[in-house]
TrEMBL record:
Name this protein carries in UniProt: Ribulose-phosphate 3-epimerase
Active site, renumbered: 35, 175
Lineage per the UniProt record: Bacteria, Bacillati, Bacillota, Bacilli, Lactobacillales
This protein's pathway: Carbohydrate degradation
Keyword Zinc recorded: yes
Task performed by this protein: Catalyzes the reversible epimerization of D-ribulose 5-phosphate to D-xylulose 5-phosphate.
Listed EC numbers: 5.1.3.1
Origin species: Lapidilactobacillus dextrinicus DSM 20335
Cofactor: Fe(2+); a divalent metal cation; Zn(2+); Mn(2+)
GO biological process, one term: pentose catabolic process
Length: 215
């Protein structure tokens, strides 16, 4: 399976965003990863549907929206309507994750669920047949530049095994502390979508994206 690279705009320079997106468009990256944070589910506040709407007007890259908010129902739908392509939320933040996935699909969008490092896959195994993407967090969500948690490769392998055994069709995304080295471990375990923030934006954008795409 070929690797999809998703540069995380959390590490981009907001006042140089247009240029950085142009550079990403010319690179091997297919997604833009947009982190939406509420200061409650995670201790940080970042981006929202207005930002996604403006981004949509600037680029045709797939907008991979990672929604880290409590009670995400309204935000997820607002971000979808603003032009997000893929809506990934944390299932423990809503009482009815199954319904929210159905709502996302009704809007003609792709739905993903994200697993915090402390959350077991077993808790939400019944969602796996209907999701388009499973995001295995390789750091605790909230900030860029954190250290990769190597133990999460076991969880990636578990999600891959479940996909193979049951003929599910989701992509397996990883997010947090991804570099060419940690990305390699994730790909070996079964991941095919690599989110990278600080690694990409601290190393000149094009070259790190190229390295990840070739893993
Ligand atoms: C963290 C965010 C990530 C973040 C990753 O909660 O979900 O997308 O941007 O940043 P790096 O790649 O620097 O760990
Ligand atoms: Zn993210």
């Amino acid at each position: 399976m070929s690797i999809i690279v998703a540069p995380s705009l959390l590490s981009a320079s907001l006042f140089d965003l247009k240029n950085q997106i142009t550079t990403i468009e010319k690179s091997a990256a297919e997604y833009l990863h947009v982190d939406i944070m509420d200061g409650h589910y995670v201790p940080n506040i970042n981006f929202g549907d207005k930002f996604v709407k403006e981004l949509r007007a600037q680029t045709d890259l797939v907008l991979d929206c990672h929604i880290m908010v409590e009670n995400p129902e309204q935000v997820v739908l607002d971000v979808a309507q603003a032009g997000g392509d893929l809506l990934t939320f944390h299932p423990e933040t809503t009482r009815h994750p199954y319904r929210l996935i159905e709502e996302i699909h009704k809007l003609g969008k792709k739905a993903g669920i994200a697993f915090d490092p402390a959350l077991s896959i077993a808790a939400y195994q019944d969602l796996l047949p209907i999701v388009d993407q499973v995001l295995v967090m390789t750091v605790s969500p909230g900030f860029g530049g954190q250290k990769f948690i190597e133990k999460m490769t076991t969880k990636i392998a578990q999600v891959e095994q479940l996909r193979r055994d049951n003929h599910y069709h989701y992509d397996i995304e990883v997010d947090g502390g991804i570099t060419d080295q940690t990305g390699r471990l994730c790909v070996a375990a079964g991941a095919n979508v690599l989110v990278a923030g600080s690694y990409v934006f601290k190393n000149g954008i094009t070259e790190p994206i190229e390295k990840l795409a070739q893993l």
